[in-house]
């Protein structure tokens, strides 16, 4: 669907919703295409392509609010959809805080091109993509008798979203991703470990296309024949591929919805210490070709770089306009963009050499964190470290603690921010972590 067609639909939706009795209306049209190819045993195991359009509408009717979505985008279908949605909204409870953002908060359309779309992705033929997935598997197929299975995958996605509302905001946001991955399982003396490796890029021509299968196999073989270790206090070096899992509850505690529902252990902590002074990160939506880069968020709010934690001190929450009104806080944005962390000077191998007794954590297996208190318990897997050397794999271990205390035990960050995510977090080294056998 081209931009002109989407704009015509936007005009129709807004005009008809107001005519039907809505006081305000916001809408989004998402034009999305995805391709996925999986190779197993040198044959195509999955070949999937999906192309679709969808319409979502937020309605504000007599201080009442509702959200609706449909993929039926012909004019008569849209008009009927809007009529029924407006009528249904009239039966809901009033909420005085539900109305569109103030106009001065909107993106004004003067930002630079952030280069988040590769239009060439959709023009590349299927055979090229299939051959890439085959090549990933071929790197290791038949290379080791311990291999049980290999699944190699090519994936890409192109998304184009038009936002518009009755306050006059209108903006289009485009993005793309291409990826190649391999997942490998092997047979060992005490189990069948599995692991994977993946490469991602916004641009097809910049996607790393070799070495993926070999790295997935290497990561899997190193997990063979794990052993438990004694319960106790250990240093934890959390690998950059999984450190995002560890900080996820911390990030969740910064959202307005959790603050308002008293489900945040960081409630009331603005300008107070919440972590070691080694933790610093910002939300930066304006990085050229960042995976989360944007000129505006899903409300149309102007995208601004903001510090979130500075030297262990909390500076900003993630607040949309609705929860900003309820909490009497200035809106920032109700979602993250690119989380960029202050990094250290040493790589993971150098950090390992500083550890007398510890664990390199390369995976989390279940567990949970209480959002209100910060108490957590996670299953982990990885490698036992002694006297600066990796000794053997470990699994069926558990780490427990409290997020408010745990993040103050951060003693070093690596120089290796994970590049393939909106959360570009490095490896993290903690001291005195409570580790026990499951």
Give a verbal description of the structure.
This protein is α+β, with helices and mostly antiparallel strands. It is built from 9 helices and 17 strands. It has helices spanning 3-19, 75-89, 126-138, 212-221, 243-252, 256-260, 321-327, 348-352, 403-406, and strands at residues 24-40, 43-61, 64-70, 147-165, 170-186, 194-201, 232-238, 281-283, 306-310, 313-314, 339-341, 357-369, 375-386, 389-402, 410-413, 423-424, 428-437. A hairpin with a 7-residue loop joins strand 5 (170-186) and strand 6 (194-201). The mean pLDDT is 96.
Short description:
With 438 residues, the chain is α+β, with helices and mostly antiparallel strands. The chain folds into 2 domains: 3-221, PmbA/TldD fold (2-Layer Sandwich); 226-438, no CATH class. The protein has 9 helices and 17 strands.
- The 3D shape can be described as globular
Q: Major sheet: size, sense and barrel closure?
A: 6 strands, antiparallel
Distance between the termini: 53 Å
CATH architecture of the largest domain: 2-Layer Sandwich
The pLDDT mean sits at 96
Examine the coordinates and then state which fold CATH places here, giving the name of the CATH topology of the largest domain: PmbA/TldD fold
């Amino acid at each position: 669907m081209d931009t002109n067609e989407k704009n015509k639909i936007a005009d129709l939706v807004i005009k008809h919703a107001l005519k039907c009795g809505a006081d305000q209306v916001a809408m989004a049209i998402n034009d999305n295409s995805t391709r996925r190819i999986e190779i197993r045993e040198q044959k195509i195991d999955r070949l999937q392509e999906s192309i679709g359009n969808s319409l979502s509408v937020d309605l504000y009717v007599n201080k009442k609010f509702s959200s609706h979505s449909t993929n039926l985008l012909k004019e008569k279908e849209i008009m009927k959809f809007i009529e029924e949605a407006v009528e249904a909204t009239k039966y809901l409870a009033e909420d005085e805080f539900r109305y569109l953002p103030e106009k001065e908060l909107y993106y004004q359309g003067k930002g630079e091109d952030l280069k988040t779309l590769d239009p060439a992705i959709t023009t590349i033929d299927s055979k090229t993509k299939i051959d890439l997935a085959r090549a990933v598997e071929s790197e290791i197929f038949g290379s080791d008798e311990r291999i049980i299975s290999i699944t190699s995958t090519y994936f890409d996605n192109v998304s184009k979203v038009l936002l518009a509302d009755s306050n006059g905001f209108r903006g289009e946001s485009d993005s793309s991703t291409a990826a190649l991955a391999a997942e490998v399982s092997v047979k060992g003396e005490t189990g069948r470990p599995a692991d994977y490796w993946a490469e991602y890029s916004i641009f097809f021509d910049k996607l790393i296309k070799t070495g993926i299968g070999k790295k997935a196999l290497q990561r899997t073989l190193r997990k063979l024949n794990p052993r438990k270790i004694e319960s106790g206090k250990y240093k934890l070096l959390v690998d950059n591929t999984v450190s995002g899992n560890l900080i996820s509850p911390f990030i969740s505690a910064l959202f307005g919805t959790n603050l308002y529902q008293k489900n945040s252990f960081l409630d009331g902590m603005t300008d107070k210490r919440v972590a070691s002074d080694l933790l610093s990160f910002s939300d930066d939506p304006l990085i050229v070709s960042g995976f989360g880069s944007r000129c505006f968020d899903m409300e149309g709010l102007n995208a601004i770089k903001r510090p979130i934690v500075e030297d262990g001190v909390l500076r900003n929450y993630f607040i949309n306009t609705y929860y900003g009104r309820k909490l009497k806080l200035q809106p920032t944005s109700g979602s993250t963009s690119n989380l960029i962390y202050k990094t250290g000077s040493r790589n993971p191998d150098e950090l390992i050499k500083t550890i007398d007794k510890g664990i390199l954590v390369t995976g989390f297996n279940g567990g949970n964190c209480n959002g209100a208190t910060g108490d957590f318990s996670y299953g982990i897997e990885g490698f036992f470290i002694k006297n600066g050397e990796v000794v053997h794999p470990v699994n069926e271990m558990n780490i427990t603690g409290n997020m408010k205390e745990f993040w103050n035990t951060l003693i070093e960050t690596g120089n290796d921010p994970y590049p393939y995510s909106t959360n570009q977090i490095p490896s993290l080294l903690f001291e005195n972590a409570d580790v026990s056998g499951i």
